[in-house]
Amino acid sequence: MNTQEVDDNKQSDESLAWQPDIDLGNHWFAKLHLHLTHRSQGTSLSHIERVGPLSVQKAFYPEGPDCAHLYLLHPPAGIVSGDELDIQIHMGEQSQALITTPGANRFYRARTDSSIGKSQQIQRVSCYLHAKSVLEHLPQETIIYNGADALNQVDIHIDSSAVYLGWDVICLGLPAANDPFKHGQLTQLNRVFCDNHLLFHDRIHLSSKSPLLDHSIGLAGSPVFGTFILSAPTIISPEKAETLITQIRELLAHRDLQHAFSITQINGLILARYLGSRSDLCKQIFTQMWQICRPYYCVRAATSPRIWFT
């Protein structure tokens, strides 16, 4: 794939030519495709395809030139009925990046006005990791407002020599504001493919009619759930993975959080879960898990993005 240097504030010719295949009408389509390339001077954001309000600032390098830190920006700060966000991250061979967001993502209450054509709100994130690349995808939480009609999909396509570490934290409703998630629906889909083979397929569909919201085999009435995924099939051997998992279990035991978090291996993936009522706690522990995992696949200690402290 040929790449070209583009100014961070400009769209590529390809993005300007791109058009959705249906009438926009009351729908807002947004597209952001990022291409990162490793060169002698380090990892650079070499190509951007952009349509609509999705954007990034310039790449930051708090860890040095090899690892680019990028902040995904969505100025509307939320997704409404008819919106469709398409985010793609392409990691070139040996490139390394940490990608996060400056604040929470939001799926707002869906509109019921039939004139908009459809009520669903869609966000799709697709990550493509080529040989020996490293991607850390660490977004802030996603809030699903009462009455939303949300599809949130994350697909990871990884070469067996690459490394992916990422998480998602889902908050249902606004319980602190006495506005729980009692109406609407959410479909959350996470998939991981390694060398074009499906390793992980995790789908949950929640609605006001779903017993999963309150049943003990579902969310048991908890408004927050999170998923943490590490895929490093070549870098982390099964023996090292067991050592890493033991360290994380010791962390959870020290914090007395075994009731809220779990961790295991599935098809070579290290997978952790959270179920509870605090998104801040989920993000805090996931961050500590990331700090434990990083020395196993990267020579540097974890450096938290500066945007997390503003």
Describe the 3D structure:
- With 310 residues, the chain is mainly beta.
- It has helices at residues 13-17, 238-254, 279-297; strands spanning 29-39, 42-51, 55-56, 68-73, 84-91, 96-100, 105-107, 121-129, 134-137, 142-144, 149-158, 163-172, 185-194, 197-207, 224-231, 261-266, 269-276.
- The protein has one domain (13-309).
- The longest helix is centred in the last third of the chain and has 19 residues, at 279-297.
Mean pLDDT: 89
The biggest beta sheet reads: 10 strands, mixed
Cα radius of gyration in angstroms = 19 Å
Order of helices and strands: HEEEEEEEEEEEEEEEHEEH
List the main descriptive attributes of the protein structure presented here.
310 residues; mainly beta; ten-stranded mixed sheet; seven-stranded mixed sheet; 13% helix; globular; disordered N terminus
Give the topology, please.
Layout: H1 13-17, E1 29-39, E2 42-51, E3 55-56, E4 68-73, E5 84-91, E6 96-100, E7 105-107, E8 121-129, E9 134-137, E10 142-144, E11 149-158, E12 163-172, E13 185-194, E14 197-207, E15 224-231, H2 238-254, E16 261-266, E17 269-276, H3 279-297
Parallel strand pairs: 1-5, 4-6, 5-8, 6-9, 7-10, 8-11, 9-12, 10-12, 11-13
Antiparallel strand pairs: 1-2, 3-4, 12-15, 13-14, 15-17, 16-17
Short description:
By secondary structure, the protein is mainly beta.
